[in-house]
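Pasting as-is:
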Amino acid sequence: MKKFFALGLVLIVIIFAVGCNSSQTSSKSIEVTGSDTMVNLARGWAQEFMAEEPDIEISVDGGGSSVGIQALINGTTDIANASREMKPEEIKTAREKGVNPKEIIVGYDGIVVAVSPKNPVNKLTIDEIAGIFSGKTTNWKQVGGDDAKIVVFSRESSSGTYEFFKEHVLNKGDSKGSINFAPSVSLLNNSSQIVDQIASNPKAIGYFGMGYATKDIKELEVAKNKSGPYLRPTIEKVKSKEYSISRSLQVYTKGEPKGEIKKFVDFMLDGKGQSVLEKAGFVSL
């Protein structure tokens, strides 16, 4: 009887020890969804953060700002990346579902309007850009270029960059403006595809976040009107908001972030996280 009792105590001790060890090695997880502009940045953050916090696992998905915001509203993600601000109707829907979105600005971006290096056009006004993307301007000679049809590329409609460009370029900042992209505009799933199309087609034009710019494309100088100044989206001009198409990059959480989510958000905002953001080609806080 004593042997069985002693054996029972040993088994209890082993089970307790295994249980404690299991709880120490089990990982917590964070789901991040949203902006394709920010997806490579978010993966960089996740990689650096998990190196410091190996017990926290972070999964990053893109799909666009609208997809991330909807996932936050539906409770299928912990953090929504967004290259645009939430719309009033999205905030209303979220609150109706018991979600109180917390906006946290993590950096800044300038939207690049780009053409092929073989295209002689070097600069455009906001009105000229709006004319091209809305379909009013269809030939490069109308804006000082060659006599050639303009081939236009845009992000697809779930993209925050698409929404921002539509509001601030096509509709001059009017969130309820009625000007839309022309039916002839090709909508692509991500910014890298737009860069590839522009690099290979001298007639093409498109736009994307400054973190996606490469030497294979030419960034146009942009001005609010013909009197200028014509500027490219440099760090200095985006920070000062002198560049016409500058925006904030933000993440949304369900209320004030807590626990491991707060740890990750704090990491985004601290020195190392902001360094990752700068290396990704964006503008730090």
